[in-house]
Design brief:
Uracil-DNA Glycosylase, subunit E, 5-stranded mixed β-sheet, two-stranded antiparallel ribbon
């Protein structure tokens, strides 16, 4: 299955993103082997920096480092897929501004992300990488339950809680892409801890 062939945005209603950098993962993935869905923020401004391109793109470099910090020997996106981890984004077009509008996050969550999660019926956990991924998941859960899933407390506090979306254990953590990841050592450590916890939870679920 290729997610990009199963999902689409029908009307592109958002005004604060670059629609020319609209991207849903174009990768062959076996849905029955996916145990963890890692939701990052948005596609990069440049296509060459995206997760699923040939070579070691910038987004892939920092993501590989995050998994290595968690104790996993990975050197390619295929190695991450072989761990049972599928990586996607909460927002499907590249950002044009630092602060994405809540309506944009909601548009993507209802048109694509919620349906994307359903493509992987054997997934056991979701990693929410950063504030916008957390906001997207809160919007998804609020539509069905009337309540947000992850509290609005500081992330270093909420990442220690236990959260569930249907049967999926949800791990909110920090964003693993971008230049800031390379310099914030404390966040690198917390991201590694959360990746490890998610893999362990998926293995025992």
């Amino acid at each position: 299955m290729r997610p990009c062939e199963k999902l689409n945005c029908p009307d592109f209603p958002c005004s604060d993103v670059n629609k020319d950098r609209y991207a849903i993962p174009d990768v062959e993935v076996d849905p029955d082997k996916v145990r963890i869905i890692m939701v990052s923020e948005a596609p990069p401004e440049l296509a060459k920096d995206d997760f699923y391109v040939e070579g070691e793109s910038f987004y892939l470099q920092t993501t590989l480092q995050a998994f290595r910090n968690a104790g996993f020997k990975v050197s390619s996106m295929q190695d991450i897929l072989d761990l049972g981890v599928y990586i996607t984004t909460a927002i499907k077009c590249a950002k044009t501004v630092y602060g994405i509008l809540p309506t944009t996050i909601d548009n993507c969550s209802v048109r694509i992300l919620e349906k994307e999660i359903c493509l992987f019926p054997k997934a056991k956990a979701i990693l929410l990488m950063g504030d916008n991924a957390i906001k997207a998941m809160n919007m998804i859960t609020k539509r069905s339950t009337g309540k947000r899933l992850v509290p609005s407390s500081p992330l270093y506090k909420v990442r220690k809680g236990e959260y569930f979306y249907k049967s999926l254990r949800v791990f909110p953590t920090y964003l693993q892409t971008g230049k800031s990841y390379l310099i914030e050592k404390s966040k690198q450590k917390m991201i590694a801890e959360d990746i490890k916890k998610a893999l362990e939870a998926a293995k025992t679920a």
